[in-house]
Amino acid sequence: MEATLPQQKVDSMPRRCFDRRWILQLMPIAILSVMFIAVLTPYLQQQSRNSEAYKVLYNDTISTHMGQHIANSSDANVLHIELLVGGLNTESFDMSLTAYITYIPDMLIDPKTRLLLRPFRLMVGRYSTVVSANSTNPYGPMAAQVPLVTGSLSQYPLDKYGALLKIEAMTGLGPHTGEPAEKLDVLMTFYGVEDYAWDYQVKKLSDSEADRLYVGSTANSDVFTLSGSRKSNFYVYIGLMWLGIWSVTIAVGYIGSMIVIWGRQPVDSPEIFLTALFAVPAFRNTAPGKPPYGCLFDITCTYFAITVIFIYLLTVAVKYIGKKKRD
């Protein structure tokens, strides 16, 4: 009887092979990890750069922070104002604006007593304020609502909005008081609120562009365009919502077609289709910004999902009833 060698015993033992299903198991984890890092890293970098509550959108001066007055000697007879842009509202269809006077021209103030020699008025859009010797706080905030002139919520989530803003400064208490009035030069600094949903831009129009776009007189005034668009962070959630609804649509369509068209075994109960029919609208209503029904987002995904689910809900239910009768 031959002796069994140790090497033969090792060779006769069953070898454990690597299960390649682990590769398929690890692939989703790797993809999700890459997506997590790819989304989180630029977001943290952006937040570190935008650590302040606002950013400069337009600047006639060399000031970099709100409340910081830096001017040259040549700007001593110029009115300086700061404007804070924010609060784009798609329901009231306007944009919020707050103006602050930061410097009153020297020619309007007595150099010895620092009293205001001549009153003046500042007009921001359709709002105005008069600064006189009786004003208790000429540097107080002036809130204004600027109506939007372009944009539509029907294009959600690719909607963009624009507004026209007219700024004018004149001496005197009002245009109908009969006193002589002269134009005051204005230096402006626009700041945009670091809004999570909106990104703001400001552009000064030339005289020809202002006459063409603005309805009304643009003499002795400066006209700006204020625009707001969705931020890139906003599209991350919307993109996931869009993919999620289409995933439900494809899954329901695949299951339904396998049952109805290819004669596969029907599901034990068709409640899965009924659940999807209610789940899609509920999930869609979590979209930020309160989009109206029938917007671009619905046209590209929600309507298709509801249609597919509704069709296969009825056809699978009919086949399910037929199966029960045969049984």
Report on this structure.
The longest helix has 31 residues. β2 and β3 form a beta hairpin. The chain folds into 2 domains: 182 residues, no CATH class; 92 residues, no CATH class. Strands 1, 2, 3, 4, 5, 6, 7, 8, 9 and 10 form a 10-stranded mixed beta sheet that branches. It contains 6 helices and 10 strands. It has 327 residues and is of the alpha+beta class. The model has no long low-confidence stretch (mean pLDDT 83).
Question: Main attributes?
Answer:
36% helix; alpha+beta; ten-stranded mixed sheet; 6 helices; 327 residues; 2 domains
Write a brief structural summary:
With 327 residues, the protein is an alpha+beta fold.
Structure classification: alpha+beta
Strand portion: 25-35%
Number of strands: 10
User: Rounded to an integer, what's the Rg over CA atoms?
Assistant: 33 Å
Helix-strand pattern:
HHEEEEEEEEEHEHHH
Distance between the termini: 65 Å
Number of helices: 6
Shape label: elongated
Main β-sheet: number of strands, strand sense, barrel status?
10 strands, mixed
Helix content class: 25-40%
Tally of structural domains: 2
Poorly predicted spans: none
User: What's the mean pLDDT score?
Assistant: 83
